[in-house]
Design a protein that fits this description.
It is built from two helices and seven strands; from the N terminus they run βββαβαβββ. By secondary structure, it is of the alpha+beta class. The chain has a four-stranded mixed beta sheet with strand order 3-1-2-4.
Amino acid sequence: MIRQCSRNGCRGRAVATLTYVYADSTAVLGPLALQATPGCYDLCAAHARNMSAPVGWEIIRLAQPQAAPPEPDEDDLLALANAVREIGFADGSGSAQQPDPDSVVELGRRGHLRVIVDAAKGGIQ
């Protein structure tokens, strides 16, 4: 389930968690907690970036992990389905020939998908 920003009126996706340590007059802003916890506030990217603390308080900003990989879009899913379909319709001999690694050339990349060509055969794989 996707959690929303705790700020009133904000429907942004939460990416960080804010915790106050009252004994130390410190606000800690870190990566989104695994679970919503009472006394902690989930913030969207905009509110996390512009967050300020009361006068005299210290703000500790923990390193945010790299953004999550993008969700597969329809083009990625169609490319995967087509690749699986082609393999399914291939002859059932199970003797699929692997291209020579030295003859493989990468034509393009989108996320985790690659378009490669076997230069020896001259076709897209």
